[in-house]
């Protein structure tokens, strides 16, 4: 039996940073979609945060470039991705995401029996959404009317608790329409979001092949990782992820390694790591993919960072200061007109070199947001994002 390759945290951290354009930004002219693809999607519930996620990884890219990729050339799509949360995805990868995400078990409904949709009703809603959006851009209210008209009054019952309000029943599977490729976001109409159907294309793919490719992509970006890490990233049942990894291991698609002495997995043959640890200072926004998917969390958020930079135990609720590959502080930016004040709260003492790099990162945040930045080092008084 071959002895598993040993990979340290420092080596894994350096590899993740390198593969996600955090060790060094993508060169000028690199397509925005390539940067987003390297992250397996940029979380976009807060679009400005997604713009910073992408911009901090690519030379010269601003929020205008991200928006052009999203709304003009459509090389990006804003839709529901891992965990049912809003992401920017590379448009060419929509078939992969669609096939893989629809194959992930959803688990029991979190809603009471009187609120839930049956699987038959859920399928009707997803089909109705696609039919309503084909060739059209609809606001949420307009889409709701169309869905109810195509299914029945039951879909419009306002029984779904959400943000101190009640939403129509059909909205509990809106993310599944995104996974199925029948819904994505369109440009805002004034202050209202619109939705449309993605550009028609072949979204059919074998679910097993898609899941294998999806695991391969995840391990390339975030490995070494365990099935539990993968399940947490997807909000999937751990037992299902364990069985999936077992199948892929038996097929020779993934390879076991020792990650800080613990069994973990990488794509088969993908055991090369950089020679040195991650180095440098980086500012990452709310819900950046690096901190959402990076595991084990206690190593990514060492010491005081575990209490300060996690919101209720959840990664991504604070923008973070990354020093040598690990979280070492939090930050916040407040924009006023054409200026933005970036307040950074380090949790470690920065060297003179790191202070210079922090200043450069703040300048880069300003470039991405197309604002003149000012750096303030001090306490961040803003609480975690909901």
Radius of gyration over C-alpha positions, nearest whole angstrom = 21 Å
Put simply, the count of helices is: 15
Give the CATH level 1 class of the domain at 106-203: Alpha Beta
- End-to-end Cα distance, whole Å, is 48 Å
The stretches of 5 or more residues where confidence is low (pLDDT under 50) are none
- Looking at the overall shape, the CATH architecture of the domain at 106-203 is 2-Layer Sandwich
Major beta sheet, specifics? 5 strands, mixed
Portion in helices: 25-40%
Query: The CATH topology of the domain at 106-203 is what?
Result: Guanylate Kinase phosphate binding domain
Report on the structure:
- The structure is a single chain.
- The strands form five sheets. The protein has a five-stranded mixed sheet. A three-stranded mixed sheet has the order 1-10-11.
- The protein contains 15 helices and 16 strands.
- Among the domains are: about 5-10 and about 205-265, Arc Repressor Mutant, subunit A, CATH 1.10.10; about 105-205, 2-Layer Sandwich (Guanylate Kinase phosphate binding domain).
- The chain is globular, with a radius of gyration of 21 Å.
- Helix 10 (about 225-235) packs across helix 11 (about 240-250).
- With about 375 residues, the chain is an alpha+beta fold.
